[in-house]
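tool=predict chain=A
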Amino acid sequence: MRLLLIGAAGKLGTAVHEALTARGHEVLTAGRSSGDLRYDIADPAQISALYDRAGTVDAVAGAAGDVPYKPVAEMLPENYEAAFRGKVLSQIELVRQGVSRIAERGSFTLITGVLCRDPIPTSSAAAMANGAVEAFVRAAAIEIAPQRINAISPTVFTESLPKYGDFFPGVPPVDLSQVAQAYVRSVEGAHTGRIYELS
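tool=predict ok
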């Protein structure tokens, strides 16, 4: 298949890229400052330009999304707006604009995370964003068939424990290789409207 991978330069994106190319797929990489195609998906106009450049693809996979981390009492309205634009609206736009751009039986795989079901201090924006994306996936799945849509919702990565492990005390980590295989499952499988929880 010919795939478009958003956020391919990050830790998760790199693992997903390796897993998909190992399966024989042609992967177009996209990101703000690296990749085959360089566009900011927080801007709907740039998403349109990205699809114009990419041409028809069989699947779109997202592995990027920025959210701020602060205590609720220190959060400002613009912080929540930034989380919505950076992780929710950007991925919704990939789907909204993509339904007319990808193959008739193509698929979308979005990224969420454990914080919407198991939050930590300072994670209210991330929890909000993850929950919104997961709700969107379930709703969109019933409308876009035969195209498919799923989300990957991992806990903290094993490879990120040295940096983030203290924020997730007692939470079992997940290897990036396992998360990448969930992307493979979403792209190559038949499920739609599924949230693949990895912990």
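The chain has a mean pLDDT of 96. The chain is about 40% helix and 20% strand.
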